[in-house]
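Journal club prep, notes for RB
We'll compare a predicted complex against what the paper describes. Inputs for the nickel (II) ion case:
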Amino acid sequence: MAIRKIMVLGEDDVLRKRSRRVDKFDKRLRTLLDDMADTMYKADGVGLAAPQVGVLKRAVVIDVGEGLIELVNPEIVASEGAVVGPEGCLSVPERRGTVERPERVTVKAQNRDGREVQIEATELLAVALCHEIDHLDGVLYVDKMIEDITDQDEDEEGE
Ligand code: NI
């Protein structure tokens, strides 16, 4: 297990590339997932995608406070509704903004052993899934951002 360097927007174009599907569920993948979880927790993030640590593989880790979720080759297979909420990204430091996301999503993926898993999510987990899966296609939340959240807004919201 190790902490990896988080790529920052504007410093490395790896964040803008499309990640490849994972077809080998080997020790290398397990190490990557372990390191991604360590790196996410160390940075106090709720999600991290492999390209954020410079690896163009379709793998993400998420923990919205309900335990670690590891997803390999995740795909949104159904979504409904729309909700606008605040987002930030470890690769876009010191910035937050509002983004419209589906209210509910169904995601199919594989776990670290290659077994198929399916997740239905709402609220923060749905947002995190959409945000992290976007990273695998080189898309960042700032591309979809409706408006910046300033420190003053945060004070008014009491966050
Ligand atoms: Ni992000």
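Talking point for the session: The chain has a mean pLDDT of 95.
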